[in-house]
């Protein structure tokens, strides 16, 4: 175990002067026939209040390629998942780290015991990596259970605390001249959007942002009375899902998936949106005509769409598209199917089929390859966090464009206006109902940024769900796109 110390203060959240705990191991992987040597590091970074009171500690896992000493500084990528309440598990093991586990395509649960293999698409080929577990996830903990929620579990406090970790990590490792990339998945999109400006506030300029299946504004994701946009955003993904499960009319099934998607998107953005906008002004005949068109694109019945007043919640769709088989779809990846009479989040097949193998694989990496053995449970998904989270701190306060919904679009816009050279890539899965392509694209298209900056934004989609990288072919394409993005 190696220790280093640093007493620098920070404007984001003060840090403890005590030395972090660090465990290191020299490793290698065979990537595309060549040996990639690297240092694997697991550690705890303590954080204290401005009065010197210890508030908690971050757990992280970092990988640094060795053998490049003397070359120009390598990029360093700070990576996290979402939730809120999720550790960095899946981006770490299933996608970007140097070691991965064979998921067999991700559509069925892989058979235990799981086998660790070298990840041929590891981002370590391009950038050094730091996987961050926000406080309350992984092994990261607040000092006091009573104060943890107040100190860390909110949109602003969470983003600022992760910024503090990044500032301190760069300082302790003397990496302030390295290109910094932020990679966030799902709620990690909101976190990354907030952080982009906060990092600039403390003198750290991100080189690039990678938003993976991101949430950027909850107004685009949560349907409610007076907020119809999520129903419009979700319909094309329902079309993709019904196309995959062959629940569409033959005319659409004879098309390519993308052509069917684009046709559904065009209808949703025009006739469907107009009908929802009119609300109770629609007469019975008009409602039925919209329901019939919706049914042709979603695979549901006309009567149930009318019963839902033309607004189909994603859980309803996932639970009823295959009810003739007494099966339901995963909302994170609608290609995944399991038996049951209604959708159940606790049994969502698209989630646990990616999570469970990754937990075993990560524990093997930590204990056998890095040498950190702890008795406490690694909290890959802390279900106590989301109900406690203070989303109100993310509601826009200036012009109110976000209504009453948490959003990081204002902070992300502020960051991109300050520096139009910041690169941004947003990627999404074609079968993701939770953070569907159109909700993310709508948010990106409504950032308050100059036209020349908008033209630089990169948008990609892949044949997969929320964790599209469980599809080996999608994972390969994602790596190729990352390679081009980092080397631009």
Q: Can you offer a commentary on this structure?
A:
The longest helix is centred in the middle third of the chain and has 22 residues, at 257-278. This protein starts with 20 loop residues before the first strand and ends with a helix. Helices cover 38% and strands 18% of the residues. It is globular. Helix 1 crosses helix 11 (349-370), helix 5 (229-244) packs antiparallel against helix 14 and helix 7 runs antiparallel to helix 8. It is an alpha/beta fold and 488 residues long.
Essential attributes:
488 residues, alpha/beta, Rossmann fold, 2 domains, ten-stranded mixed beta sheet, two-stranded antiparallel ribbon, 16 helices, 38% helix, globular, disordered N terminus
SSE order and pairing:
Elements: E1 21-31, E2 34-48, E3 54-65, E4 76-80, H1 89-96, E5 99-101, E6 116-118, E7 128-133, E8 141-142, H2 145-152, H3 155-172, E9 180-185, H4 187-201, E10 206-212, H5 229-244, H6 250-253, H7 257-278, H8 284-298, H9 302-307, H10 314-320, E11 327-329, E12 337-339, H11 349-370, H12 385-388, H13 409-418, E13 423-429, H14 437-445, H15 451-454, E14 458-462, H16 472-487
Parallel strand pairs: 4-7, 4-9, 9-10, 10-13, 13-14
Antiparallel strand pairs: 1-2, 2-3, 3-7, 3-8, 5-6, 11-12
